[in-house]
Structure to design on (415 residues):
């Protein structure tokens, strides 16, 4: 009996000494997305993108096994920080991909500064100031942001559609502010109007749009709508039921597959709606078509085409894995070499080449598109034009771009 006890103790000692080495054979990666609240469907597709990238790498990078730990938020900054804190401080992730929504990204960026040894890569959060002002050295965004996503749309609405005056309806937080700015800056510069009193701001999770619909002015050529998820579905359904007839201009997530792929509503009236963003469903490109085919095969119950959330989380997760490959999975220096590798990373995505600027924000191609009915009856975004390699400062120097000021309800004033 005594001999058995000594052997057991010896085995336990060996295991205790071996565990640090064994731990180095794997890397814990966190993925944080909105798996509750009005943006749940967006978060679910974001997680599909994470899993696509991990499957592509066989859950291995730099010779290390990748252990995925998921976290949930509800699109509020507080919930995003709680989710990130759990992943970092309780689950011990060394790399974190997320969050999904704009103001969440601002909050997680600030949280990242308190854990410089952890590397954060954006999910799909697209608020401008996550990277433009006071960035975190350990926060990377390979998925671009909301003003970049609007590239070409303001010019198209003014020059091609002939719109001169628009109303605005958007959720009242940082990402829609960024989208509205990205659309209005060129539209207003060309001579368009979007009076401040014709801009309507609603909270995330708003269900009743009747008062907003009644207040929308009649003397506008179109309505720019920057809503997402259930908010977009609720407005579009209620606007149609109320007999709304003004043409719509879509924010990137207003006519994304998370909305176009929803069931149980008549959608014919949004055919022809122009939009812009980081993807376009019908882009005739081999890389994109391969990505769509892989998405459909891996997630037959997903959307007819991957949403921009699946795309963004995929791109950021793939960047995380490529960075790990570059340093052979070595995070022993607190991730310093890893972050240096990420900063220099340039690679091909399903939507073209992506690289980072000096504030670790992506430079990438954008897509001007229009909603059409696909051959199988599904609504899709058809490519009108590809705008190549759009920077966060929209081609201006950093100092010149900062003169625009922070995005908000009234920037630009525009009529």
């Amino acid at each position: 009996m005594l001999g058995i006890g000594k052997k057991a103790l010896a085995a336990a000692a060996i295991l205790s000494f071996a565990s640090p080495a064994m731990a180095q054979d794997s890397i814990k990666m966190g993925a944080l997305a909105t798996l509750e609240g009005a943006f749940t469907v967006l978060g679910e597709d974001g997680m599909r993108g994470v899993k696509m990238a991990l499957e592509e790498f066989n859950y291995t990078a730099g010779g290390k096994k990748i252990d995925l730990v998921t976290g949930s938020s509800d699109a509020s900054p507080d919930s995003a920080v709680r989710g990130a804190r759990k992943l970092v401080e309780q689950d011990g992730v060394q790399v974190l991909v997320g969050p999904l929504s704009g103001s969440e990204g601002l909050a997680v960026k600030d949280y990242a500064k308190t854990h410089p040894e952890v590397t954060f890569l954006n999910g799909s959060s697209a608020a401008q100031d996550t990277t433009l002002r006071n960035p975190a050295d350990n926060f990377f965004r390979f998925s671009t942001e909301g003003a970049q996503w609007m590239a070409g749309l303001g010019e198209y609405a003014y020059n091609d559609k002939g719109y001169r005056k628009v109303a605005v309806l958007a959720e009242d937080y940082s990402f829609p502010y960024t989208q509205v700015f990205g659309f209005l800056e060129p539209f207003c510069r060309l001579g368009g109007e979007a009076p401040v009193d014709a801009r309507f701001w609603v909270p995330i999770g708003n269900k009743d749009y009747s008062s907003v619909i009644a207040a929308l002015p009649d003397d506008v050529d179109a309505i720019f709508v920057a809503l997402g998820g259930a908010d977009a579905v609720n407005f579009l359904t209620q606007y149609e039921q109320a007999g709304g007839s003004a043409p719509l201009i879509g924010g990137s997530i207003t006519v994304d597959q998370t909305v176009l792929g929803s069931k149980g509503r008549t959608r014919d009236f949004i055919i022809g709606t122009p939009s812009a963003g980081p993807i376009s469903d019908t882009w005739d490109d081999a890389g994109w078509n391969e990505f769509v085919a892989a998405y459909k095969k891996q997630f037959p119950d997903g959307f007819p085409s991957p949403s921009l959330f699946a795309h963004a989380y995929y791109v950021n997760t793939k960047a995380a894995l490529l960075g790990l490959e570059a340093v052979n999975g070595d995070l022993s220096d607190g991730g310093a070499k890893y972050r240096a590798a990420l900063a220099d990373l340039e690679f091909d995505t399903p939507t073209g080449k992506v690289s980072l600027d000096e504030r670790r924000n992506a430079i990438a191609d954008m897509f001007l598109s229009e909603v059409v009915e696909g051959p199988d009856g599904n609504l899709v975004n058809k490519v009108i034009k590809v705008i190549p390699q759009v920077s966060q400062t929209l081609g201006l120097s950093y100092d010149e771009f900062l003169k625009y000021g922070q995005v908000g309800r009234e920037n630009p004033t525009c009529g």
The chain has two domains: 10-144+285-364, 148-283+366-402. The CA atoms of residues 273 and 371 lie 5 Å apart.
